[in-house]
Design a protein that fits this description.
Strand 11, helix 11 and strand 12 form a beta-alpha-beta unit. This protein is 16% helix and 37% strand. It contains 14 helices and 49 strands. The protein is α+β, with helices and mostly antiparallel strands and 911 residues long. The strands form 11 sheets. An 8-stranded mixed beta sheet has the order 6-7-9-8-10-13-11-12, sandwiched between helices. An 8-stranded mixed beta sheet has the order 14-16-19-18-17-20-21-15, covered by helices on one side. Strands 1-3-4-2-5 form a 5-stranded mixed beta sheet.
Length: 911
């Protein structure tokens, strides 16, 4: 929640405006009922809770809230007894904020050891200290700064009163660069109690002058723009606030307010554009937002208006609906505290101004740097009329803004130094660079991280120019600013794109990734320096987005040297006994002229002389190198120690065969130069040591071995090493397959097995005319049969072949159509019965008979005799390769007893 942000109905404001003004409390009313424990005439800080947002304009018509919390339904207000009573009668629920009330009445006191700045706030300079700083800036930077008296404060205009102050503007620009320059104006501390504002503007001035010639962007800003800083817009009121008074207005005491604690005019309601028009100020002389008896009645505002009209062209007609041209120049910031806001016109109406889109874009851009809430002033706050930003835009067409810093009027120093200052220095710096076309440039991409590498070269040497074009740096808390892909980038040398005294030359830059298609693009180019004169140059970079918007430029310095003076980086010596060869490592521009001095020995002009010193000892030498036609020179002195015993050098060794295999005998041979005898000692890398040359050795295992030979003589040693690879041929080659008994067309996976030095290449002959490679291969055979598989495994030192036969069968058809038959079909007991089975499917079959009387048989047929007559159930079970797909059938067999046939004897009886 941003402190001063809330939303209320514009219609409610319009409907209530007249009644609110008539109902506003005055400083002369008496408190109906004072809160317990508080003096009857004290001012308090209260939380004023409202039930309806339409109640708010009744308050903001006579005072300006310290804070607005629309989401929680309350304002933070400073009220006197009459205002307290008015709020209670108007239906507001009030809570006194004891902490803020205590701070309101607490006078400032110096901290322990503090002797300057505002008492209790060592980070904030007093009015006098601020003016002294500005005066010293002019002394220290006379070509960059002027200190101009533009008028008087109210106290200074009153004869016999307090001395008052001159209204002083610090103007910063490089006076040595002529031309019509666009203007940036910031007025600070228009409300006396807002401590952070004057200090921010003073620190901004210090930052600019101290970094001129150091920071290229600061440098071109002051070369081509003007910065105007009214560091104290209300110096009379500021002196009261420095003591700890919560003083907002100037000190004008002759407008009819009888309360000395409420004298003064709110200078931010006294400008003459739509002064007092719209319920955004008060006619009550004791009100915190008293607008004064007439427009620009206060000398502070009259002087500021006239100064602004002298530096800014009038770019807009008086009609509120008439826009300023898109090419209008200038930015005017009115720096306030507190609230964390960036506000633009209009303040007197919630309707957007004619240049509302451009004002919004720049506002969101500025809010990107400080993280504040960006919005049109009267779209989410209360109305204001006669304000700075509305005068800037309404009277002159200049992009005007109110910036509300931080979270308190008397902001603590830690927050100011660590948060407010760095964030808002960046914000002001951006705004000051955008003044040439304030309604256009903020829509374009920023050029960031401009770098010329190297930053100092000799004429003719190429320079790599890099930057980032970024179209996304807006604060989108309150609506989303449109962004586009980067479409182009270009650079200029010395003459930026806007100059007219010469013809600026644009050089294209390329997208680092090869294509302009993102909202953030790294861009690059190579600068040809052959035509650049010696000295410092400035390289300007700008980017363009797909909508055609160019952004502000950023720059880098580039220093061109006609010749880089020589520098001796090191002198190198190579000794061989008594003989020394000298050489030097140099930087600079060739050609070089050498002069070697070897004391008692002959000197030399050679780049790398060889000197025979004849005997051991330590010898001095001096090298002097000259270049750049004699204007560049460097010298180096040292000593060389010579031992005429020639140490070992040129040691080397080799072996045969060049590519050995495991178990093979190698022969190592070594040699070295230097004073003899030279002993050779070997470490063969597998723990084996040897001496002399040649030596023989065989390796039991494959691998890489680090072989070291040390050559030693009486003067020293030299160690040389090399890596030897020993290869093991492929052996133990074999393979397997799964499944073990494949059928057509089942996929078979064949896997190789072997030992030997990697990498090993495996090739397969799959037996059916197909081949394959790899440790594991898969293959499906299309016909049943026995296939001869051949696998060949090979590495750098040999190969081995493995073979095998793979039998592929047709797939198994499960048992089906099982039946049984027997003869005779009507057997007697003890008569042999022959049973015969039949079945469909893939043979061979397995037959199991259960003959119903406890007898079991196997085979396709079975013979059995039953010993008793009866009914028997015969079961036949048939299985084959399908296993669980067995089938069983049954029949009932009737076994008969023997029959005896007797003759039938009968006679015929007649009746």
């Amino acid at each position: 929640m941003h402190i001063k942000r809330f939303c209320f109905s514009l219609l409610a404001l319009a409907g209530l405006l007249l009644s609110l003004l008539l109902a506003a409390p005055t400083g002369r009313a008496q408190l109906v009922e004072s809160p317990g424990g508080l003096p009857g005439d004290a001012a308090w800080v209260v939380r004023a809770y409202y039930d309806d947002p339409a109640m708010v304009p009744a308050v903001t018509a006579w005072t300006e809230p310290w804070e607005v919390h629309a989401d929680q339904g309350y304002l933070v207000l400073e009220v006197n007894p009459a205002q307290y009573a008015w709020l209670v009668e108007a239906g507001w629920r009030l809570e006194i904020d004891e902490s803020l009330t205590a701070q309101l009445h607490q006078l400032n006191q110096y901290l322990g050891g503090q002797t300057d700045s505002i008492p209790g706030y060592p980070c904030y300079r007093t009015v006098e200290e601020t003016f002294a700083t500005a005066e010293q800036i002019v002394v220290d930077y006379p070509d960059l700064a002027t200190w101009t008296d533009i008028g008087d404060s109210w106290e200074k205009t009153i004869p016999g009163g307090l001395p008052g102050y001159d209204m002083m503007v610090l103007r910063l620009t490089n006076a040595n660069v002529p031309g019509d320059k666009p203007d940036f104006l910031a007025n600070c501390a228009i409300h006396a109690r807002e401590y952070t504002t004057a200090e921010l503007c003073t620190r901004f001035a210090e930052h600019l002058v101290e970094n001129y010639g150091v920071d290229p962007d600061v440098t071109w800003l002051l070369d081509y723009h003007e910065v105007h800083l009214l560091l104290h817009t209300n110096p009379d009121g500021r002196k009261k606030a420095e003591a700890g008074a919560s003083w907002r207005k100037n000190t004008d005491n002759d407008d009819g307010c009888g309360n000395p604690n409420s004298w003064g005019v709110d200078l931010n309601r006294n400008f003459d554009y739509l002064w007092g028009c719209c319920g955004g100020s008060s006619g009550d002389a004791c009100s915190e937002i008293y607008r004064g008896p007439m427009a620009a009645s206060e000398p502070e505002i009259f002087s500021l208006q006239e100064y602004a009209r002298s530096i800014f062209p009038d770019q807009r007609a008086g009609d509120p609906n008439a826009p300023a041209p898109i090419t209008a120049t200038g930015i005017w910031l009115d720096i306030h505290s507190y609230g964390g806001l960036v506000l633009w016109s209009w303040g007197w109406t919630a309707n957007p101004p004619p240049n509302g889109a451009g004002l919004q874009t720049l506002g969101r851009k500025m809010a990107y740097f400080n993280g504040y809430w960006p919005e049109q002033a009267n779209s989410g706050l209360y109305p204001t009329d006669g304000s700075t930003k509305d005068f800037a835009y309404g009277d002159l067409g200049v992009a005007g803004y109110t910036v509300e810093l931080g979270t308190a009027f008397f902001q603590d120093c830690a927050t100011f130094e660590n948060v407010i200052l760095p964030d808002n220095l960046d914000m002001m710096f951006y705004a000051a660079r955008a003044v040439r076309y304030s309604y256009m440039l903020p829509s374009g991409p920023e050029a960031l991280n401009v770098s010329a590498t190297p930053g100092e070269v000799v004429q003719g040497e190429p320079v790599q120019l890099t930057a980032t074009a970024n179209d996304t740096r807006y604060n989108n808390q309150n609506g989303s600013e449109p962004t586009q892909a980067i479409a182009a980038a270009e650079y200029y040398i010395d003459a930026p794109p806007w100059v007219t005294t010469t013809t600026p030359v644009a050089y294209p830059m390329a997208a680092a990734d090869g294509s302009f298609n993102e909202t953030v693009e790294d861009v690059e180019a190579v600068i040809d320096t052959s035509a650049l004169s010696p000295g410092r140059h400035m390289v300007f970079v700008r980017g363009q987005d797909a909508a055609g918007n160019w952004g502000i430029v950023s720059a880098a310095f580039l220093d061109i040297q006609p010749c880089r003076p020589v520098q001796i980086l090191d002198v190198l010596t190579e000794t061989a006994g008594c003989v020394v060869t000298f050489s030097a490592e140099l930087s600079g521009t060739e050609p070089y002229s050498y002069s070697w001095d070897f004391d008692a020995y002959s000197g030399s002009g050679a780049p790398a002389p060889t000197i025979d010193f004849g005997e051991s000892g330590s010898y001095p030498y001096t090298l002097t190198v000259t270049n750049c036609g004699g204007s560049g020179q460097d010298s180096y002195s040292g000593r060389v120690t010579v031992d005429c015993c020639e140490g070992v050098w040129g040691a080397e060794f080799g072996w045969t065969p060049a590519e050995p295999i495991v178990g093979e005998v190698l022969t190592f041979s070594g040699a070295a130069s230097g004073t003899t005898p030279i002993d050779l000692a070997w470490d063969l890398g597998d723990g084996t040591l040897a001496t002399g040359s040649p030596v023989t050795h065989s390796y039991a295992l494959d691998g890489d071995y680090r072989v070291t030979m040390t050559a030693t003589n009486a003067c020293g040693e030299q160690v040389v090493t090399d890596s030897l690879g020993v290869c093991a041929p492929v052996h133990g080659a074999a393979f397997s397959w799964r499944p073990l008994a494949p059928t057509v067309p089942e996929t078979v996976t064949l896997s190789a097995m072997f030992s030997g030095t990697a990498p090993v290449q495996v090739e397969w002959d799959l037996g059916d005319g197909q081949t394959a490679t790899g440790l594991t291969v898969t293959h499906a055979y299309t016909a049943a049969g026995a296939y001869a598989i051949v696998m060949t495994a090979a590495n750098a030192c040999g190969l081995e072949v493995a073979t095998g036969t793979l039998v592929v069968q047709l797939p198994c058809e499960g048992v089906h159509d099982v039946s049984l038959a027997y003869t005779p079909t009507a057997p007697f007991y003890n008569q042999p019965v022959v049973f015969v089975a039949s079945a469909g499917g893939t043979p061979p079959f397995s037959y199991t008979w259960d003959l119903g009387d406890g007898s079991m048989e196997t085979g396709m047929s079975a013979t059995h005799g039953y010993t008793l007559p009866g009914s028997y159930t015969v079961w036949l079970t048939v299985t084959n390769c399908a296993g669980s797909a067995a089938q069983a059938v049954s029949q009932v067999l009737q076994v008969e007893a023997y029959r005896i046939y007797l003759p039938l004897l009968f006679k015929v009886v007649e009746n």
